[in-house]
Amino acid sequence: MLRNSFLDPDHHGVKRSIMPIASRTIESLIRTQGIGDLYQIYALCERDGNDFNLAYIPADFTDEPSEGFDPDYMSKLYERGYQMTINGYPWEKGPPGFIVGE
Known about the structure:
mainly alpha, 2 helices, flat
């Protein structure tokens, strides 16, 4: 399972105005729905006897794009994933917050 997203919550402050609050609300909804999808996929893998391997953007990748599609940001993100892969990618064996084997 490859998730092109961060899974950790965004704890940065938000400007107290309707548009920034609405934007953060929608971003949070999309993120949590994606996490819910991971739980559903994990359950299906367990039911069908398949292995579950999850990769996502690590929380310590702190670069931010400067525009909607930032080639420099994408290159850094690709390089980070590539380095993680050649060093033996640390697959997550369950969805975020789920303790496998209990």
